[in-house]
Amino acid sequence: MLPPHALEQTIGRTVREEWGRILASLVKTVGDFQLAEDCLQDAVVAAMVHWRKNGLPAAPDAWLITAARRKAIDRLRRDRNFSLKRDSISYALDLEQQLSDESEAGAIPDKRLEMVFTCCHPALEEKTCVALTLRTLGGLTTDEIAGAFLDKPDAMAQRLARAKKKIALAGIPYEIPDRSALPERVSSVLGVIYLIFNEGYSASNGGSLTRGDLSSEAIRLARIIHRLLPQETEVSGLLALMLLHDSRRFARVNEQGAMVPLEHQNRQRWDRTKIAEGVSILEAALPKRRLGPYQLQAAISAVHAQSPSWAETDWLQVSLLYERLHAYQPSPVVRINQAVAVSYAQSLEAALALLNEAASNGKLDNYQPYFAAKADFLARSGERAKAKDCLAAAIRLSGNDLERAFLESKAALL
Amino acid sequence: MHYMCLIYAAEGSGPQPGTPEFGAFMKGYGDFTETVKSDGKFVAGDALQPIATATTVTVRGGKNQTTDGPFAETKEQLGGYYLLDCADLDEAIKYAAMIPSAAFGRIEVRPVVVWDH
Questions:
Q1: CA-to-CA distance for A350 and A348, rounded, in angstroms?
Q2: Looking at residue A106, what is its pLDDT?
Q3: A24: exposed, middle or buried (C-beta count within 10 Å: 0-12, 13-18, 19+)?
Q4: Rounded Cα distance, A180 and A188, in Å
């Protein structure tokens, strides 16, 4: 028998890994998120008791789902005792039959896609989708999610409860959308996953630059969706993009905790396994010729990941990829990045022209990356005074301690 | 499940009577009503007279009070509704998006409460 500490860990890991699959299947049978979650929670409590006493069962997932189904039947029976709802009686009887049939069959039907499409439904607020996806598919606790988003646990619990109520009352379906709606709905799901990743990657308000757990969680969720929707090229694109970004996790921050830009990163510290995986996923998706913004961003990231140094980067390729990305995402951010590539592939004049064009409507007056890029171009053109002014603006606009420290160190060099 | 599709738009926005666009707009409503009826989704639907005709009634301390006008001055007003019988929210959203006023106003979609007996 495992020592108590190791057993706790094993139970915790099993519950975390199996949570999404079991919950998804339970929601399908009981037809309600809250009921399904309560039953699974009960089953986990029971598992802690039984497994500590009798050791880990051969198939912990089967144990958990059987226990959760029994809890569901118990709860519905109890409900039946004190309510005389005609519908709920016949429903409970049907369900009892269905659950016992399924328990005998042994296989747990995979309903995780149905679940993620429900959790990322456009009728829910985006932050709610993020929290709900982490809770249901990811198996994170409400406290963990609250912690990750610097929210109060109570507020997060309320947000989740409201969402589950809306799903039930508004009749948000538990289905994979039909073909015509699929691309749009997949894009909502990917948006939510990428938000989770970025929250872990850049932590815009906190002191620490990488909250790696959220990034890893986003990658894990994307892997699940990629396995379930292998034909969706943008799912591949996002997974590849996140792996490629994440490969630089340990090179982005130096020993003092300061941000290191791509240009100055020690490429020896990039995670080659993640790069290889990201590149191969992207290379499998591109020939399907259904391009999208995630694949393009992954392609840009792959060019960087595969080049031996900043100077040897294929900047022409990068600038062309940004040009194509701009067609999907006509944002100033894309133009700024394209300008950086153009500054190396073509000339500083061409890059500054592109930058000025993007800033012409005044939209970038409060946008830190614009001033940082402009300062860089000006410094490289020998315009030190103008470059200093731009850097000062960038520092004033920065919302992250590490980023500010980096910009200040740059200003000191001018 | 019954969904109430509440049609909100600023009065005076959208096609106005007497313009060529208005005819097409009204035909759009006619076509939509036909569609929901033939799809078996239509429960009820009406257009409301403009807010200039509204009267707001309150009862406080047993006393009726009436005021001229809508209960709140808002930029967009309730101009009509459809009550549709749909399988789920996705279907309700699909039909709501087909309501002609969705192109310039907003459609609020809300499920109707089913009372337990």
A1: 5
A2: 55
A3: buried
A4: 14
Q: pTM of this prediction? A: 0.83
Rounded Cα distance, A320 and A311, in Å: 17
Q: Does A121 touch chain B (CB under 8 A)?
A: yes
Which residues of chain A make contact with B106, given a CB cutoff of 8 A? Answer: none
pLDDT by residue (tens digit) across A301-348?
999 999 999 999 999 999 999 999 999 999 888 999 999 999 999 999
Residue of B nearest to A86 (CA): B117
Å between A170 CA and nearest CA of chain B: 5
Q: How far is A184 from chain B (nearest CA, A)?
A: 13
Cα A222 to the chain's mean position, in Å?
A: 7
Report residue A359 as tokens: 């800033």
Handedness of CA A303, A306, A309, A313 (dihedral sign): negative
Count other Cβ atoms within 10 Å, centred on residue A383: 16
pLDDT tens figures, A185-199:
999 999 999 988 987
A288 shares contact with chain B (CB less than 8 Å):
no
Residue B87 to residue A173, Cβ atoms within 8 A: yes
Q: How far is CA A246 from the centre of its chain?
A: 12
Parallel/antiparallel/unpaired status of strands B55-60 and B77-85: unpaired
Instruction: Say whether residue A3 is in contact with chain B using an 8 A CB cutoff.
Output: no
